[in-house]
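dumping the sequnces here before i forget
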Amino acid sequence: DVKVTQSSRYLVKRTGEKVFLECVQDMDHENMFWYRQDPGLGLRLIYFSYDVKMKEKGDIPEGYSVSREKKERFSLILESASTNQTSMYLCASSSIEGGEKLFFGSGTQLSVL
Amino acid sequence: SQQGEEDPQALSIQEGENATMNCSYKTSINNLQWYRQNSGRGLVHLILIRSNEREKHSGRLRVTLDTSKKSSSLLITASRAADTASYFCAPDDNAGNMLTFGGGTRLMVKP
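..and the predicted 3d for all of it:
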């Protein structure tokens, strides 16, 4: 089975801190995604990547950046965390050959104080 | 990409009853997927139905697709307490490899 692993289940940070959320998948998937999920707003796409060193903006990229130096790893970076970035962050991956099915990690609940 | 809209927002039923959730979308699609999310966890893929299919089954799940009405439904038969979760639809319009998700339907199955 595909495994998508997010480095932290819960994270508490202070306003202004630089935050790294890490995601690793073990099935050689080309595509990787970062979403955030907030009550009443559903899942919103932040960034995605089709390949190593490639990145595309999603619907809400402001305040975030990403890094994909290796195929299996996709990092989400909050350059200067703010309280409105308190949210559940979900990483997902998919393969071109596997079609459109997404595999999700368990999520990181980030609290910015 | 486009977002599906699930209806109802919340559904509460007794164990053994059937649960029906609906999804509407706006533009032509290549396929539509349903996902499930247990509280505080990631989403899990349930079933994918392509635009040329009208109905699909997987265990106790039955999905229908009506492209003329731009709608889909997910039926869970003989529900169990363990089916308690949020359910999301994701229409894929093949405009890139991105799926977006609405607010989902929160299903509660009471024992």
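The mean pLDDT of chain A is 93.
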